Amino acid sequence: MNIKTYISIICICLLPFSKVVAQIALQHTTCEMLENPLGIDVQKPRFAWHIISNERNVIQTAYQILVASSAEKLKANEGDLWDSGKVNSSESIHITYNGKPLNSRLKAFWKVKTWTNAGQSEWSANNYFSMGLLYYKDWPKGWIGFDRAFPWDNIKTDSRLSARYFRKEFQSTKQIKSATASIIGLGLYELFINGKKVGEDVLSPSPTDYTKNVKYNTYDVTNYIQNGKNAIGTILGNGRFFAMRQNEKPYKIKTFGFPKMLLNINIVYTDGTTANIDTDDSWKGTADGPIRANNEYDGEEYDATKEAQGWNKVGFDDSKWLKAEFVQEPTGTIEAQMNENMRVMNTLKPVSISKLAGGRYILDMGQNMVGWLQIKVKGTKGKQIKLRFAESLQENGELFTANLRNAKCTDLYTLKGGETETWEPTFAYRGFRYVELSGYSYEPSVNDFAGKMIYDNIKTVGTFETSDALTNQIFKNAWWGIAGSYKGIPVDCPQRNERMPWLGDRGAVAYGENFVFDNGRFYAKWLQDIRNSQKEDGAIPDVAPAFWRYYSDNMTWPGAMLLVTEMLYKQTGDVAAVRDNYPAMKKWLAYMQDRYMKDYILTKDSYGDWCMPPVTIESGRGKSADKKYPSELISTAYYYHFTQLMIQFGKAIGNEEDVKNYELLGNQIKDAFNQKYYNKEGYYASNALTDNIIPLYFGMVPQSKVETVFKSITNTVEVTNKGHLSNGLVGIQWLMRCLNDYGRPDLAYTVATQKTYPGWGYMVENGATTIWELWNGNTADPKMNSQNHVMMLGDLLIWYYENLAGIKSESAAFKKITMKPEMINGLNSVNASYNSVYGLIKSSYTKTADQFKWNVTIPANTTAMVYIPANNRNEVSEKIKSVKDLKFIKMENNRAVYEIGSGDYAFVVEQK
């Protein structure tokens, strides 16, 4: 069969989760062309492709990949770098490059074709990726910067440091074939060539522990460079490098130094010659520019009267600027950044503006968001506009700032005077819904402002909508909270003087996030941060990168390393994530066992079930949630769970000896746990909800006791809690799946849709547009009371997708899919989709008293088991083709079970 092919490229090359993805369309399909990766340092990137076909049951039988050193060679079907030949395999993800060595700056062109049971595709269109600077010697000799404060800076009390500006002119006299710029700007940078900003990234690069590794970015700047004279300009902001509040608690806060930069622009001319423009002491620099201070906690101060017009263009008089100084390089290894940089991902218009006393105004964005505010203002030279940010208002209409702690969250803009001026910050973001405006000599309009939402350039890959408006709003709140927390690291909150990558906050939350966001590269990078933070003895901190020196030794926070690795393996099939992190996970478990395990009970915990809800909303009024209740039950149960994950990981990488050892250790822990904590009345410890949920969901409860323990759980939820949850951070990660998997999806739905305290719906009813840090976030002590904190999502999103929508991976990466939506009274429709590594999966159903309609999409090269609600198979019909074409497996619990291949399906069940 001659099948026409159209291919679009989704390139994802990263270390360790490195791959290049393409979409193949069998039969004509129009696909969006996406960007190709530049400057990777993975010597063996991995390739993947999506097969898109109008046919059903499409399974790949073979593939061939060509990688060439030029577009011309690839067009001629000459894979001079690698020709895989025809490989008989159904694998279409994580195909490792196995060709000639890939050298620095090499641009490689590639394409793929496949053979399937539906026919052979044509070659795809040509796509490419490029290599970065693979060796230390490829980089310039010198870092430049100013390793000191200037008279207008205040670094002793406020970490108030101005931005550094650098510039250099150079000559280009030949015709340019290509040019790339590779830059490390620490802590943050903006790059300009001939006055134009290079790329769309902001707040780059991603933060790391700069003593361990530093990330560089690469850009194609061919179209930025002109014949003749050219000018490069850079601005360096503080970011995490010049540490915030570094003098406040020197024993706690890790410091790195003053901002600095390393840059190389490599130009290739059409005659084959090359030229390099590097950082050295021929550059000129100043700290006396318009950005007078920039701090992630406090904001940015910009004095437009200090602007130097044309500073980043040819011909600017920089005679009064300083000579750039060579500075000491950071000790961290130089690495290409394979995860996405931040960008302005959305723009919001304010919904209202109101006047306060003293010539002040309150701007309402209508949504708790993360980013910054762009302003348009007109006034006299030297007039200063102040912008103060907060998440909510007091009853009198003033900003509520108590929950910001000592973060100033303030921008200051000094006008240069004249025409309307447009400004937005460069190196500071904040979490806010409301802005207090002051300094205006006229009444500003909502049209003078725009909210710029900023997060990592991670695609939204999941949709979710139901017939229940509250559920839809909770999902929307989750989306806004998760997106805003992506800052090169998963920050806990975006507004107060913290914004730290706490390991405990993510846990199972990262798993749920993956149904909504393409976060594989993001979390692969974070796992590297965690590995880099591990001590020689095996200890892993509670915050990674370890900007704060918190090594409290507990199971639940550092254990996020195993949970995130499991997510990457289960959701994306990334065995490399398992292999790369396995030694660190094993070392940490051995450390905790040697140091804290006694008679197979793990005796060390730090946080317990963090932030459990007070019994009533009033009992928690004004009280701090910052209290720790360590629990050996929790630490021991988690250690057991991690032995089971290590068994799974050991099998994935072929370490059978470790598998046996962890099986033995796990059984010993389980026996000791049940002997110590199980009560003959049918519950664990004091019968707290979390104390029962985690051993049951982890598989620690003896089979003969499962029903009794689950009855204790349901009694707590239904009777004691009157249909509400009572979990903190630990228990909420397993609550919804536990209720669902043991037969009470109806009770899970009741918990998920409660509008009274405590619950996600209570947050919505009280005006939340993101997820609160605390269940009683409207009454608790504000010192620890973020209104945008995703940790309390727990496994809610997992339950939304796997159970309400019925989209679940039965084997790694959704190669085999289970489609089994729960039928819940009061929920009449669910419409969800998830763009997996194999392609788009959809589940959309509506139900009435006598009919069930279910549209299903399964991607090519996968299969699914679908569980259709029906009393018998004769009630089931399929509107696109015939249900007879499907493979009936069995009837199970009033469901007709079919095995199906790829394609679109429209099932209808008529129940009489």
UniProtKB/TrEMBL annotation:
Record-level Gene Ontology MF annotations: alpha-L-rhamnosidase activity
Pfam families tied to this protein: Bac_rhamnosid (PF05592), Bac_rhamnosid6H (PF17389), Bac_rhamnosid_C (PF17390), Bac_rhamnosid_N (PF08531), Ig_Rha78A_N (PF25788)
Domain of life: Bacteria
Signal peptide segment: 1-22
Catalysis performed (reactions): Hydrolysis of terminal non-reducing alpha-L-rhamnose residues in alpha-L-rhamnosides
Domain Alpha-L-rhamnosidase six-hairpin glycosidase: 460-804
Domain Alpha-L-rhamnosidase C-terminal residue range list: 806-880
Domain Alpha-L-rhamnosidase concanavalin-like: 355-454
Ranges in a coiled coil: none
Gene3D superfamilies with a match to the protein in the record: 1.50.10.10, Galactose-binding domain-like, Immunoglobulins, Maltose phosphorylase, domain 3
UniProt keywords, alphabetically: Hydrolase, Signal
Domain (Bacterial alpha-L-rhamnosidase N-terminal): residue spans on this chain: 174-345
Enzyme Commission code: 3.2.1.40
InterPro entries: 6-hairpin_glycosidase_sf (IPR008928), 6hp_glycosidase-like_sf (IPR012341), Alpha_rhamnosid (IPR016007), Bac_rhamnosid6H (IPR035396), Bac_rhamnosid_C (IPR035398), Bac_rhamnosid_N (IPR013737), Ig-like_fold (IPR013783), Rhamnosid_concanavalin (IPR008902)
Enzyme class name: hydrolase
One GO BP annotation of this record: carbohydrate metabolic process
Name this protein carries in UniProt: alpha-L-rhamnosidase
Organism from which the protein derives: Pedobacter roseus
